[in-house]
């Protein structure tokens, strides 16, 4: 078997895998449809406003309901949205034990 | 077959370190003969070889080829004479690839790659089918007693084997002219004489052979048809012939 | 067979043979490359899918939420406000909402306590989100102990656990009756946390919001479009942040690749000289280098993107989980629905394959234009 043919086969397999993954994506979209509708119902009946992704603090739990700039408050040691964040260290009780 | 008239090759033209490697050489190389360029190192043999082999262009003078019909030239009748002095690189490469086979002093094999792959190298860009190239390469390896080494990496070969691989590579495109630069420099006397036997067989097959060497085994060999002596980039007076 | 195709195949054959010579070096280069593509593709897939999920769900969110501010902070809002707002023309319904946060000191988790607006909840009984159930090891009919703001220990019967599909929106919820909520937080009756306002004509939302602020200057209406925009921004921002941080890695890789290619080793230079001397044209040498770049970068692109897809959509991005989780105790276990656009793939392709291939070819250019007799003269 020529190396160039092997490489072509490799690329072909990758392309097929891409197609298969896109197909899998479609399949999942269909399968997840019921769950999505259930979630939409839940959001409607409970009047939810936010994703439950970040439950650590109230301004992260309800990003859209927090004070104007609160959504951009960040992990104390991460790069900060506001320049002041690089100068003010987090209050002691909030620091993580190293 | 190859005619050089008043050919000069200078390097670093116009700079302070300009030097002329070949000066005012006029020479004809005859078909199906063995021509040896003889002279001490630094006499301009290699530069002259590269000019003959269309590897470089002369600074001044003309080089003409006859009996060579490149694919891009329309087919016509009779012998054409081709002035290669001013051809663009593309065409020059095409001529070089089909008309000349080169055997270098350092063998110039590509390390890490198999013997077979090395022999096939010059034929790859032509767009020939790989099967055909492989078949030709295997036949050549067979001829030079290297069939068993086809998958070996070239750096593991002995000097004699490496040279035979280089020869096989020079022959892969079935050239009209074989050009060898100091072919015996890295060989012992026995291998050098074996090389000259090979040269004789090439001539018998109708190939033109041009060798640059200062090795007596080469230039004193009985099969040498023409001896050209060089010194300081010029033809030594005795051998100089009119263009 | 077509000659030019055959030429490509012949040269590709040799490219691969020569790449395989330095197996260790080239494979480790490929591995780093795959990893970079993998991370960038993962970030892109993850944030796009999450954003889409958020937009899809939150399009069902209340059209407007009205908060009352007190000294610049979110405060309880009296039912009188609800009546006043309901009287504004164009408003179809005002629903007082009761919700808040409960910090569970034993596990360190934050729960979101919520009273279903329909008033269907039974006193003494709660429904919990899957994350809460997981955190406390709860199942239906178990008891959930909570400590009230007056210091009493209160026990609630868990009626049900919300489905696992709802984790992304409801993992930390505890649904309870209004009376229980008020007792737990020691909240006076007649007050809500905020008001959900429905408007007959969505185009009048901004007008209605203006009227509300005019009538109650201490309120802050939040429109659904703002909610959606928040999420749009947050994922763009977070995704962008990741990419920016990654850029350092990408650039160092580029510099490394450039250096490797630009500082062509003496060996590589020698090889190019040999190829030229045995009859390869400059174009043939560049084709060789082109395939060299392509073979590495195409492989890296394909494998990186495939791995990223599996990582994000099959295994739910375990590599990003710690970053998203932060200090949170409750983290939703969710599976993202695959969402890949050809445009995304195209952008990834141009960000990864093209620069590397160019970085391989360009430096070889000069080496490839050397005189063929250079190899003889060395």
Largest interface: A-C, 53 and 78 residues
Rg of chain A over CA atoms, rounded to whole Å, is 23 Å
Distance, first to last CA of chain C: 39 Å
Task: Report mean pLDDT of chain A, rounded to a whole number.
Answer: 76
**Major sheet of chain A, described briefly?**
none
Sheet with the most strands of chain C? 6 strands, mixed
**Which radius of gyration of chain C do the C-alpha atoms yield?**
31 Å
Give the percentage of residues in beta strands of chain A: under 5%
Give the number of helices of chain C: 13
Number of helices of chain A: 3
Helix content of chain C: 55-70%
Describe the global form of chain C: elongated
Shape of chain A: elongated
Secondary-structure-derived class of chain C: alpha+beta
Explain what this protein looks like in three dimensions.
- The complex is a heterotrimer of chains A (98), B (243) and C (378).
- Residues 71-79 of chain A have low confidence and may be disordered.
- The N and C termini of chain A lie far apart (56 Å).
- Chain A has helices at residues 3-31, 33-46, 58-61.
- Chain A is built from 3 helices and no strands.
- Chain A has 2 domains: 1-48; 50-88, no CATH class.
- The longest helix of chain A is centred in the N-terminal third of the chain and has 29 residues, at 3-31.
- Chain A is elongated and about 65 Å long.
- In chain B, the strands form 2 sheets. Chain B has a 6-stranded mixed beta sheet with strand order 6-7-8-3-9-10, with helices on both faces. Chain B has a 4-stranded antiparallel beta sheet with strand order 2-1-4-5, covered by helices on one side.
- Chain C is α+β, with helices and mostly antiparallel strands and 378 residues long.
- Chain C has 2 domains: 3-58 and 230-377, no CATH class; 99-186, Barwin-like endoglucanases.
- Helix content of chain C is 56%, strand content 17%.
- Chain C is built from 13 helices and 13 strands.
- A 6-stranded mixed beta sheet of chain C has the order 5-6-10-7-9-8. In chain C, strands 1, 2, 4, 12 and 13 form a 5-stranded antiparallel beta sheet that branches.
- In chain C, a hairpin with a 5-residue loop joins β8 and β9 (153-161).
- Chain C starts with a helix and ends with a helix.
- The chains are: A mainly alpha (98), B alpha/beta (243), C alpha+beta (378).
- At the A-C interface, α1, α2 and α3 of A face α1, α2, β6, α5 and α8 of C.
């Amino acid at each position: 078997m020529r190396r160039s043919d092997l490489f072509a086969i490799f690329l072909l397999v990758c392309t097929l895998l891409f197609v298969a993954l896109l197909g899998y994506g479609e399949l999942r979209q269909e399968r997840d449809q019921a769950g999505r509708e259930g979630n939409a119902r839940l959001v409607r009946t409970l009047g939810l406003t936010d994703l439950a992704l970040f439950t650590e603090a109230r301004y992260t739990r309800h990003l859209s309901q927090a004070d104007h700039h609160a959504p951009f408050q960040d992990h104390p040691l991460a790069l900060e949205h506001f320049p002041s964040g690089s100068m003010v260290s987090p209050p002691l009780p909030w620091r993580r034990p190293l | 077959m190859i005619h050089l008239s008043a050919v000069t090759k200078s390097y670093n033209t116009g700079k302070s370190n300009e030097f002329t490697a070949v000066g005012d050489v006029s020479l004809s190389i005859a078909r199906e003969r063995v021509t040896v360029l003889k002279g001490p190192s630094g006499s301009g043999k290699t530069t002259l070889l590269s000019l003959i082999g269309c590897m470089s262009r002369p600074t001044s003078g003309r080089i003409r080829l006859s009996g060579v019909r490149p694919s891009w030239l329309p087919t016509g009748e009779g012998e054409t004479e081709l002035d290669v002095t001013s051809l663009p690189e593309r065409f020059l490469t095409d001529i070089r690839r089909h008309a000349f086979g080169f055997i270098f002093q350092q063998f110039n094999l590509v390390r890490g790659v198999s013997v077979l792959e090395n022999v096939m190298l010059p034929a790859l860009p032509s767009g020939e089918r790989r099967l055909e190239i492989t078949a030709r390469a295997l036949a050549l390896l067979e001829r030079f007693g290297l069939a068993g080494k086809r998958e070996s990496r070239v750096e593991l070969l002995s000097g004699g084997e490496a040279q035979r691989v280089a020869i096989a590579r020079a022959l892969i495109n079935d050239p009209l002219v074989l050009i060898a630069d100091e072919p015996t420099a890295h060989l012992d006397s026995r291998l050098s004489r074996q090389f000259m036997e090979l040269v004789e067989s090439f001539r018998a097959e109708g190939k033109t052979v041009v060798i640059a060497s200062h090795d007596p085994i080469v230039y004193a060999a009985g099969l040498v048809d023409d001896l050209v002596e060089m010194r300081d980039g010029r033809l030594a007076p005795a051998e100089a012939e009119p263009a | 067979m077509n000659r030019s195709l055959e030429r490509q195949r012949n040269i590709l054959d040799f490219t691969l043979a020569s790449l395989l010579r330095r197996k260790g070096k080239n494979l480790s280069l490929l591995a780093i490359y795959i990893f970079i593509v993998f991370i960038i593709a993962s970030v892109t897939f993850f944030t796009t899918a999450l954003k889409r999920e958020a937009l899809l769900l939150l399009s069902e969110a209340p059209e407007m939420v009205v908060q009352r501010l007190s000294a610049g902070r979110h405060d309880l809002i009296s039912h009188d406000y609800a009546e006043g707002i309901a009287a504004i023309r164009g408003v179809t319904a005002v629903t007082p909402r009761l919700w808040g946060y409960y910090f569970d000191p034993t596990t360190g988790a934050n729960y979101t306590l919520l009273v279903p607006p329909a008033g269907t909840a039974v006193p003494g009984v709660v429904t919990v989100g899957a994350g809460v159930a997981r955190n406390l090891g709860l199942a239906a009919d178990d008891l959930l102990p909570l400590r009230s703001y007056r210091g009493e220990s209160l026990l609630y019967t868990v009626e049900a656990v919300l489905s696992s599909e709802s984790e992304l929106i409801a993992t930390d919820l505890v649904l309870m009756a209004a009376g229980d909520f008020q007792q737990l937080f020691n909240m006076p009756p007649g007050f809500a946390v905020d008001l959900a306002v429905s408007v007959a004509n969505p185009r009048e939302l901004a007008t209605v919001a203006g009227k509300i602020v005019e009538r109650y200057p201490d309120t802050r209406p939040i429109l659904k479009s703002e909610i959606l925009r928040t999420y749009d921004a947050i994922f763009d921002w977070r995704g962008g942040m990741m990419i920016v941080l990654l850029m350092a890695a990408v650039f160092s890789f580029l510099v490394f690749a450039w250096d490797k290619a630009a500082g062509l080793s003496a060996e590589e230079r020698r090889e190019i000289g040999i190829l030229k001397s045995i009859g390869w044209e400059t174009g043939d040498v560049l084709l060789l280098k082109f395939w060299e770049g392509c073979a590495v970068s195409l492989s890296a692109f394909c494998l990186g993107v495939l791995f990223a897809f599996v990582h994000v959509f099959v295994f739910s991005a375990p590599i990003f989980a710690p970053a998203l989780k932060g200090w949170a105790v409750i983290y939703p276990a969710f599976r993202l629905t695959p969402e890949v656009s050809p445009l995304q793939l195209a952008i990834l392709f141009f960000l990864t394959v093209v620069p590397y291939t160019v970085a391989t070819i360009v430096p070889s250019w000069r080496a490839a234009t050397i005189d063929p007799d250079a190899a003889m003269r060395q």
